[in-house]
């Protein structure tokens, strides 16, 4: 299986960016404990009120499986009411020199 990467951009409703950021940082901790998640980084944009998430998974299937985890479902449930927009900026195949 090939590794899979995702870039996503999430925007909170006005006044809720810090709460969304906290939820996504909690997700980062949870996903990095998962053996199939190689990288889950969260970054607050300096250009606007959005948050960018960079994910690398062992495979597309590994990412799909993560969406059914109880922790993931709980975090999604907490984030949904404060999300104004979600964009998938890119899906990619990570490469390295090795």
Could you describe the 3D structure shown?
- With about 100 residues, the chain is α+β, with helices and mostly antiparallel strands.
- It has a single domain (about 5-90), classed as Alpha-Beta Plaits (2-Layer Sandwich), CATH 3.30.70.
- The chain has helices at about 15-35, 60-65, 70-80; strands at about 5-10, 35-45, 50-55, 85-90.
- It is globular and about 45 Å long.
Estimate the helix proportion, in percent: 25-40%
Q: What is the name of the CATH topology? A: Alpha-Beta Plaits
Main sheet record: 4 strands, antiparallel
Question: Average pLDDT, to the nearest integer?
Answer: 93
Strand content: 35-45%
Judging by the overall fold, what is the CATH architecture?
Answer: 2-Layer Sandwich
Widest sheet, order of strands? 2-3-1-4
Count of folded domains: 1
Uncertain ranges: none
Structural class: alpha+beta
Top-tier CATH class: Alpha Beta
| Rg over C-alpha atoms, rounded to the nearest angstrom | 13 Å
Q: Which sequence of SSEs, written as H and E, runs from N to C?
A: EHEEHHE
Please report the total strand number as a whole number.
4
Count of DSSP-assigned helices: 3
**What distance separates the N and C termini?**
17 Å
General form: globular
């Amino acid at each position: 299986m090939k590794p899979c990467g995702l870039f996503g951009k999430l925007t909170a409703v006005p006044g809720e960016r810090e709460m969304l950021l906290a939820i996504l940082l909690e997700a980062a901790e949870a996903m990095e404990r998962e053996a199939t998640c190689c990288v889950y980084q969260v970054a607050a944009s300096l250009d606007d009120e959005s948050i960018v998430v960079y994910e690398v998974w062992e495979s597309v299937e590994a990412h799909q499986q993560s969406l059914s985890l109880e922790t993931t479902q709980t975090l999604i449930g907490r984030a949904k009411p404060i999300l104004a927009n979600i964009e998938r900026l890119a899906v990619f195949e990570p490469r390295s020199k090795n």
